[in-house]
Design goal:
Strand content: 15-25%
Helix content: 40-55%
Number of helices: 11
Distance between the termini: 18 Å
Shape: elongated
Oligomer: single chain
Radius of gyration: 31 Å
């Protein structure tokens, strides 16, 4: 209260530091998420297209097991794809989604919405591991008499009208219990099959996509044995493999294929193609974390310099208080209260402004990639703790220097 100008300068310094740190954290988080959202980064490194004459026969299965047993291979799966379509009535869809289709002229009011269904059937071992990782009872999902599936209701695609990437959901978490799907096979539509929805998931098994690539499309995961009861199984399967050392794995897989008499030309090494995308994500992550560290160092130096300078400018005042009887304990308590007031007032102003800046960053990111707004809770928590830590440490350093000074020398010094 005696010198509001210096008090305000300290609070403003802390306020700017809080806003800078939280905003930098939010910017880095949105930057990493948007880049990861746009750049495709699959969890497999190799694909092998099994030819129509080798539609997962005995030799192909043996080769798959032999490749999976290699030390350089971490995981593998065998996946078939089948497409279908279903007509979803209005009452099973969110009102906003349905009205959007009506306004776009795709359907008339009251008509069902056609939804494309991408069915991915994976080998039983991979499916059992996948269902187990989701905490599901595998036995309920592997009964051919009641075809049960896992639904991934996520769509990620580039909208040329809005000129940005969109992330949508058709059912918004309320997927119907039964899906009447008409399987399309060989250009012909088979009879309608009712698929039981066992669960919904956010992540796919190895080899299946994590999302659909158009607005009116969903991804369905099911066991290969169950899919055989639904379709005629005419589509050739694709083997997927994930490896740690892709160079070594590439050589070993080709050797196994040649020994089995299978064409190695159908083996595709995706590691090189995906390396550029992975490098971009890595570079962005390093840049964002480096940016946060740089901002943190700047803000810490700023706060430390402000507080130490203000304390040095008040040395005569402190000397006068000590000369009239203020004890060391009282002096320390006075500065501790100052630290608390500095921190609380800086956070009182800084956190709301930080949230506002985060919202503006979010609106900027939304122009290129659709993603949900997230408060930088981690940045807010770190900044809250750091403000008090940095303030108290800076004040302790300045207090120790002042305590060592002679009272008479400080009173005589007119320059301070």
């Amino acid at each position: 209260k005696r010198n509001r100008r210096r008090y305000r300068s300290t609070v403003v310094s802390l306020f700017i530091s809080v806003v800078l740190f939280v905003s930098a954290s939010a910017f880095s988080t949105y930057l990493r998420d948007s880049v990861s959202n746009v750049y495709e980064n699959t969890d497999f490194d190799f694909t092998y297209y099994v030819g129509s004459s080798e539609r997962l026969g005995k030799s192909a299965l043996e080769v798959f097991d032999s490749i999976l047993a290699l030390d350089s291979i971490n995981a593998g799966s065998v996946v078939r794809t089948t497409s279908g379509q279903m007509q979803v009535p209005p009452e099973q869809l969110p009102a906003g989604y349905y009205q959007a289709k009506v306004s776009q002229g795709m359907i008339s009011d009251g008509q069902p919405v056609p939804i494309v269904v991408d069915i991915y059937s994976v080998d039983s071992n991979t499916f059992a591991q996948y269902a187990g990782s989701l905490g599901l009872d595998v036995s309920q999902l592997q009964n051919p008499k009641t075809p049960t599936v896992i639904v991934i209701d996520k769509q990620h695609y580039y909208d040329y009208g809005q000129k940005r990437y969109l992330n949508t959901s058709i059912f918004s978490g309320s997927v119907p219990a039964l899906l009447p799907v008409t399987i399309t096979q060989g250009g012909e539509e088979l009879e309608v099959t009712e698929l039981v929805v066992g669960a919904t998931a956010e992540t796919p098994p190895l080899g299946a996509p994590p999302y659909a690539t158009s607005a009116d499309e969903i991804v369905i995961i099911m066991d290969h044995a169950v899919a055989g009861a639904v379709t005629d199984d005419t589509n050739p399967p694709i083997m997927y493999f994930a490896a740690e050392d892709t160079t070594k794995a590439n050589e070993e897989i080709r050797e196994v294929l040649q020994e089995a008499g299978l064409p190695a030309s159908q083996l595709i090494n995706l590691a090189e193609a995906l390396r550029a995308n992975r490098n971009v994500i890595t570079i962005i992550s390093v840049f964002s974390y480096g940016f946060i560290v740089l901002i943190s160092l700047i803000t810490i130096a700023n706060v430390f310099n402000t507080i130490t300078t203000n304390v040095n400018l008040r040395r005569r005042e402190f000397a006068m208080l000590k000369s009239v009887g203020m004890t060391e304990q009282g002096f320390r308590r006075m500065l501790d209260f100052e630290c608390i007031f500095y921190g609380l007032k800086a956070l009182l102003y800084g956190l709301p402004v930080s949230v506002l800046v985060t919202w503006l960053i979010y609106l900027s990111i939304q122009q290129g990639v659709e993603m949900p707004f997230e408060l930088p809770l981690q940045g807010i928590l770190v900044s809250t703790i750091s403000v008090f830590v940095v303030v108290f440490v800076s004040m302790k350093y300045s207090r120790d220097k002042v305590r060592q000074e002679n009272i008479l020398d400080a009173l005589r010094n007119e320059n301070l």
